[in-house]
Amino acid sequence: MAYEKPERFPCPFCECNTGRIPSAIVFESEHAISFMAVNRRSTGAVLVTPKRHVEQISDLTPAESLDVMEILQKTAKSVYSAYGPDAIHSFCNAGIRAGQSVCHMHFQIQTRFNSKEYSFAPSIDIPWIAVDELRQNAERIKSAAPDLVEYQPKFTTPDAKMEEFTSPMTRLKEDGVLISESEHFYAVTAEYSRVKGAIVILPKRQVSNYLELSVEESNDLMLHVRKLARATEKAYDPIGLSVWWETGTEADQFFDHLVVEITPYFEDIEYKYQPRSELTQTPLEHRQSWTQHIIKHLEP
Ligand SMILES: [Zn+2]
Fold first, then answer.
1. pLDDT tens-digit readout, 16-35
2. How far, in Å, from the CA of 275 to the mean position of ligand 1?
3. pTM of structure
4. Domain boundaries in the chain?
5. CATH code for the domain defined by 12-146
6. Separation of first and last alpha carbons in the chain
7. What is the 50 CA–ligand 1 centroid distance (Å)?
8. What is the pLDDT of residues 118-142, one digit of tens each?
């Protein structure tokens, strides 16, 4: 494994999770926990971690994966109820190049508001918030009812590009870009790739965002993500890996369909974030060859 690791000892998340340093916990289950980010980019920013110290998604046990996903979805729904953001960006980074600043696997739930500028500055440059204020935020999220979320994103998806997400499975198979399939999702080599080996995971039914997934679907998604992250590590040995999805146009969601992206990072390829709308189409032969390469490394 060649992720570039951020070195911080002792692990600040283990210190938070065990109460050795003050934190503002939102939700907790057997294997996972969510707590307010101390250096937050926007109001209602929350981190979700497994309780056990693991470095990346591929290290999670299946039971931990499911718990992390359950707490992630519950927390995100409650953040919507509590703060009504215009969008949410959910992501998990491994490796310094991908933006990981604490070497304990974590998903971030970052809120976006039309009225407020969002900062992409490194976490180290984001101001810390007093723990008392974070605990008030955590209480507000906990007391919000997750079931009451009514989220209506607005989209301007060009019909031509929507085809990527409504393609029948037979076409993906014929094109040779289908990597794997689970009960509720399929994973394909991205038609608009940011980098070689980029994967997108798509729900088989029309789902606008991950808050709409049933518990069964979200569990299926997380196990699929974990399997693909492991295969990507074996296939490409990247120095970083991001798993992410957007909910809402304010966070650059471009299609009215949930799109989960898995993006590897490489030493010799400079990575520059571009909204999906600005990406160019990847030649089919590249997609086919990347697909074949990753399939060879999939675990049964
Ligand atoms: Zn830790």
1. 888 888 889 999 999 999 99
2. 32
3. 0.90
4. 12-146, 159-296
5. 3.30.428.10
6. 20
7. 9
8. 777 777 777 788 899 999 999 999 9
